[in-house]
């Protein structure tokens, strides 16, 4: 399995008046070609910072982001511009991710004008094809973003991300601002495009249900650290970290006769600027022992093939 | 896709709807339009040569020969005020456009890049803005000399930081939006992002400011002339006309009143237009 | 069956703009009983945010309101927001999505709770302080005394939501309107807040109208569900019946498109998107997106049908499939 993206020991710290925020703390993972890797976790877990670091929109404190054999961190300006063409991005909010003063045809065509110097007929043909790829007709090209619904705007964002035929697309909560019925359309479109174009995704989400549908590999983060990672099917079937279990149990079911919330979880997520010593999850964990509350933090251990968990007392032991 | 696009139309499409029924704006447009016509067709409208001295008719009261009377050199005030419209409109236009053109790039760069660049540019602008109004122009004319062009330069220097400040705030807000992030992720140049993505979304407040400033500029230019550091004889400038009549206007009211009224009418009309433009372009006007 | 706490009949709301009146609600009827949690579900443009505002008399001046309402057996003049607010004031409370917008950033929670409670009840500040503390304990706020001394920016979103619920409950309301109160929260915190709302409703007999777009939350929390589409109720039923035997085609499609754990296969999707109130389709407003639409659906507005399981307005309900040979 060849790796498209490999992130090694990535760290991003922010200094704030209230202390150091460990947004991303020693995170490593790989995205194989044609696979989608989902990063889940609650607010403050660092999943968005991780995505922005991969996109080089924030500068990591340390670590490596290797894309297709080149380290993005410390890459020259021209190398970075070239690599950026290989990575597309779709952001969460379709209302602010499209320039309101540009026609959507120009928005989708802009990367082609800038990077491939396409003009006129050939540009128009490529943009038409991109619109068709995401289920829009070419007559939409002359309109402005506000003339579209949320779901259509997200399709336009996806068309723009696809323009330069990237190998990787970073999806930062792409459906969380959409209506339920439209969310399903967009998820199906993403799944379909992945298969058709052999794309890899880095999918950032807080919604386990959409992750289960879209992800091949799952990474669960808590307060900046990876606490469990492995094949998504494995983790959903057999979560090893108590936090992963908690996340799965907290997701509402769709069956009123089989409610999950009769025993709500206790405790709150600590602040990322003031993480507890030892295992950061120990304060909320029903399996925690004295060992968990003391430094050092638990190491990553392999429970099954490629299924790794950072826990002193993983479930099933 | 059968999805119907049914959202309201863009900023400008609704703009004229919003302004319809704004009587003040129309009064402003009509009055200002007349003043522009007067300025353009000044040679046809003026009844006399505005510079021709006629001591036999000095300080003549308004009459059929001299519609608004004459000044202490016997020059026809009606013709002088008609020609003066050219000067005032030119000053207003040049100073406002130059200020906006100079201030906008500063604000754009500061708002887009942020950090140390922003700090340096905006502190520099603060230095300009910290001067009391008119003090900076006075200081500048003291340095570069007096006259109409010098006054325009002085006003431009004291006005452009305001545009930098307005555009800065808007550019900073826009730069934080996802479409700008996305443009950066696509590897576009900073220049392209600033001018294609940030500026088109950030210039509306500057336009509103310019429409309001136009009148103030005319007033400020007249003030400079009045205190003797702007236009000089024989420039045809309303403020200068009022200044020259300073010692006479108690006995001969028309020498000050007519150019004074011209200033008032122009500034008032421009302000009405400015308010209207504000209502038209400010999207928040929708909720009224 | 107990008498309804709040009963709304044929609620119609339009918003006047310069050109015309855009009708957003076309006759919505619903009722809430004491201790009952009613879910109000819909997509954008369905009227699910307008409905609670109309109920509480909080619509802006350009709203054109019609319909009948009764609260605790008193007739509400729902077309008159000021009169509605007067009757409901102190008896109905609202919590919403951004709890931090409910509080001033410049004063502690304690001060703001005490201000609100003493203003509503005329209690002394000392007594109001005790009530505030008790209210924070009731919402299981960790360290309630400490929370009184904290400023809004010093707590997490989940805690701010708890304080807002405490504020809403401090006047002992009979009705709680909750407008997407957990949408901005993380799942584990959402689970806590949902549990809290359920406990409070049941122990105090408070009727709750819970507005949400998330069917999962409805399944976990509500007793009964009202599904809105394009300003009309398309189906209302007890929660188990609605999820297991939906009747309206839209309800069924919405359930099918809802991602949930254990459904790793492709979602059923509803084509297109919800219509804008300014451009509603003819007949059943859902027909352009409905796979089972017939000629009648395109032209005739479906009538509300009442069965023992609930009510729905669909010409071609899901249940009608059963008799057919597939």
UniProtKB/TrEMBL annotation, chain A:
<dbReference type="Pfam" id="PF08352">
    <property type="entry name" value="oligo_HPY"/>
</dbReference>
<feature type="domain" description="ABC transporter">
    <location>
        <begin position="5"/>
        <end position="248"/>
    </location>
</feature>
<keyword id="KW-0547">Nucleotide-binding</keyword>
<dbReference type="InterPro" id="IPR050319">
    <property type="entry name" value="ABC_transp_ATP-bind"/>
</dbReference>
<dbReference type="InterPro" id="IPR003593">
    <property type="entry name" value="AAA+_ATPase"/>
</dbReference>
<feature type="region of interest" description="Disordered">
    <location>
        <begin position="256"/>
        <end position="277"/>
    </location>
</feature>
<dbReference type="InterPro" id="IPR003439">
    <property type="entry name" value="ABC_transporter-like_ATP-bd"/>
</dbReference>
<dbReference type="Pfam" id="PF00005">
    <property type="entry name" value="ABC_tran"/>
</dbReference>
<dbReference type="InterPro" id="IPR027417">
    <property type="entry name" value="P-loop_NTPase"/>
</dbReference>
<dbReference type="InterPro" id="IPR017871">
    <property type="entry name" value="ABC_transporter-like_CS"/>
</dbReference>
<dbReference type="GO" id="GO:0005524">
    <property type="term" value="F:ATP binding"/>
</dbReference>
<keyword id="KW-0067">ATP-binding</keyword>
<dbReference type="InterPro" id="IPR013563">
    <property type="entry name" value="Oligopep_ABC_C"/>
</dbReference>
<protein>
    <submittedName>
        <fullName>ATP-binding cassette domain-containing protein</fullName>
    </submittedName>
</protein>
<keyword id="KW-0813">Transport</keyword>
Automatic annotation (TrEMBL), chain B:
<dbReference type="Pfam" id="PF12911">
    <property type="entry name" value="OppC_N"/>
</dbReference>
<feature type="transmembrane region" description="Helical">
    <location>
        <begin position="21"/>
        <end position="46"/>
    </location>
</feature>
<dbReference type="InterPro" id="IPR050366">
    <property type="entry name" value="BP-dependent_transpt_permease"/>
</dbReference>
<feature type="transmembrane region" description="Helical">
    <location>
        <begin position="127"/>
        <end position="145"/>
    </location>
</feature>
<feature type="domain" description="ABC transmembrane type-1">
    <location>
        <begin position="85"/>
        <end position="274"/>
    </location>
</feature>
<keyword id="KW-1133">Transmembrane helix</keyword>
<keyword id="KW-1003">Cell membrane</keyword>
<feature type="transmembrane region" description="Helical">
    <location>
        <begin position="214"/>
        <end position="231"/>
    </location>
</feature>
<protein>
    <submittedName>
        <fullName>ABC transporter permease</fullName>
    </submittedName>
</protein>
<dbReference type="InterPro" id="IPR000515">
    <property type="entry name" value="MetI-like"/>
</dbReference>
<keyword id="KW-0653">Protein transport</keyword>
<keyword id="KW-0472">Membrane</keyword>
<dbReference type="InterPro" id="IPR035906">
    <property type="entry name" value="MetI-like_sf"/>
</dbReference>
<feature type="transmembrane region" description="Helical">
    <location>
        <begin position="89"/>
        <end position="115"/>
    </location>
</feature>
<keyword id="KW-0571">Peptide transport</keyword>
UniProtKB/TrEMBL annotation, chain C:
<dbReference type="InterPro" id="IPR050388">
    <property type="entry name" value="ABC_Ni/Peptide_Import"/>
</dbReference>
<dbReference type="InterPro" id="IPR003439">
    <property type="entry name" value="ABC_transporter-like_ATP-bd"/>
</dbReference>
<comment type="similarity">
    <text>Belongs to the ABC transporter superfamily.</text>
</comment>
<dbReference type="InterPro" id="IPR027417">
    <property type="entry name" value="P-loop_NTPase"/>
</dbReference>
<feature type="domain" description="ABC transporter">
    <location>
        <begin position="6"/>
        <end position="255"/>
    </location>
</feature>
<keyword id="KW-0813">Transport</keyword>
<dbReference type="Pfam" id="PF00005">
    <property type="entry name" value="ABC_tran"/>
</dbReference>
<dbReference type="InterPro" id="IPR017871">
    <property type="entry name" value="ABC_transporter-like_CS"/>
</dbReference>
<dbReference type="InterPro" id="IPR003593">
    <property type="entry name" value="AAA+_ATPase"/>
</dbReference>
<keyword id="KW-0547">Nucleotide-binding</keyword>
<keyword id="KW-0067">ATP-binding</keyword>
<keyword id="KW-1003">Cell membrane</keyword>
<protein>
    <submittedName>
        <fullName>ABC transporter ATP-binding protein</fullName>
    </submittedName>
</protein>
<dbReference type="Pfam" id="PF08352">
    <property type="entry name" value="oligo_HPY"/>
</dbReference>
<dbReference type="GO" id="GO:0005524">
    <property type="term" value="F:ATP binding"/>
</dbReference>
